[in-house]
Description:
Elements: H1 16-22, E1 29-35, E2 38-45, H2 55-58, H3 73-85
Antiparallel strand pairs: 1-2
Amino acid sequence: MATVSVTSKGQVTIPKRVRQALGITPGSKVEFDLDRGGARLKLVKKQVPSRIADGPAILNYTGPRIPIAQMHGGVAMKKASKRARR
């Protein structure tokens, strides 16, 4: 059993061994329940790192899918801004 300190904001660091055992990653949601004079920690939602390909789904985009290789907008805008500064 690991002992941790509580900060002035009521925060604690979940020990690495516990995070690994439960699969808790940054952004995961956990739940605390009172249990016989103590508390119980439960993983509610595991945060999976997002990928650039997930962008349209994250933004609820329902239009046609454009392959990342064909996205040149940012490059074109960068070149145009350099020309404008001259």
